[in-house]
Amino acid sequence: MARHSGGQGWYGKVLGAAIGVALLAAGASMWAAQAEAVGGSSPKATASAAPGGGVKAVAVTIAHASDKGARGVNITIDDGPDPVWTPQVLDVLREYGVKATFCMVGTQAQAHPDLVKKVVAAGHRLCDHSVSHDTTMDKKSQAYQSQQILGAERMITEASGGVRPMYYRAPGGAFTPYSRTLAASRGMRPLGWNVDSKDFERPGTDAIVATVERELPGGPTLLFHDAGGDRAQTVEALRRILPRLKEQGYSFGFPVR
């Protein structure tokens, strides 16, 4: 999700819940070494999203494009899963036959594995959004970045029943060359966005819709949220935006890998 000043209390709680991830430091150092060795990952490689699938490196560049081409749109949903709002977002997506990419915070996935499984069962894709949503990750050590990325990968995979995240989105866009390389070595394509709907600020449903319509010509990947506070405006905005984009000839897809 985008950097912002609101909602820090909620993320403070998430950060507190993630303290135990420090135990992953030893394992992280091993993956750190691997990441440094695969800095030249092939853009053509892909990772399996199925239980038991092998891990293949993917491109380290930050993805924005849609696999549906020039008239494709990628819906991405950050910060959940949340027991109140994620089911409502899933209902709207199902109503309009749209698949999305859910960028999950590790501690949230661990707390709500039933919702992670529902997201997967509905045909959506998973994205690693770090353990505790620290938007200052780019200022932290490589060991810390490893703990955040690999810890969330493990939490999400376990919560889903074995389905691995296919992307990594840095909180607030706080990517580093190291974090991108590490994620790509684990088969998670770094994922950016083109349109920040600003729904996190709760500016009103009309404002969210207007932002998307104004900024969509700049690129296909749209950013929304299903956690971190009252997301009623997000749900209603999606209910308006999805059919409107379909009427305009857009197709809904996934970020390129």
Give the SSE map:
Elements: H1 8-17, H2 25-37, E1 72-78, H3 85-95, E2 101-104, H4 106-111, H5 113-121, E3 125-128, H6 142-160, E4 167-168, H7 177-185, E5 189-190, E6 195-196, H8 205-215, E7 221-225, H9 232-247, E8 251-253
Parallel strand pairs: 1-2, 1-7, 1-8, 2-3, 3-4, 4-5, 6-7
Helix pairs in contact: 2-6, 2-7, 3-9, 5-6, 6-7, 8-9
- Give the tally of β-strands: 8
Beta-strand content: 5-15%
Mean pLDDT reading:
86
Quick one: biggest sheet? 8 strands, parallel
Distance between the termini: 19 Å
Quaternary status of these chains? single chain
Helix- and strand-based class?
alpha/beta
SSE sequence, one letter per element:
HHEHEHHEHEHEEHEHE
Q: What is the radius of gyration?
A: 17 Å
Pfam family, one: Polysacc_deac_1
Protein name: Polysaccharide deacetylase family protein
Domain NodB homology: 71-253
InterPro entries: Glyco_hydro/deAcase_b/a-brl (IPR011330), NODB_dom (IPR002509), Polysacc_deacetylase_ArnD (IPR050248)
What would you say this structure looks like, in words?
The protein is an alpha/beta fold and 257 residues long. Helix content is 40%, strand content 11%. It contains nine helices and eight strands. Strands 1, 2, 3, 4, 5, 6, 7 and 8 form an eight-stranded parallel beta sheet that branches. Strand 4 (167-168), helix 7 and strand 5 (189-190) form a beta-alpha-beta unit. The longest helix is centred in the middle third of the chain and has 19 residues, at 142-160. InterPro entries: Glyco_hydro/deAcase_b/a-brl, NODB_dom, Polysacc_deacetylase_ArnD. This is Polysaccharide deacetylase family protein. Residues 71-253 form the NodB homology domain.
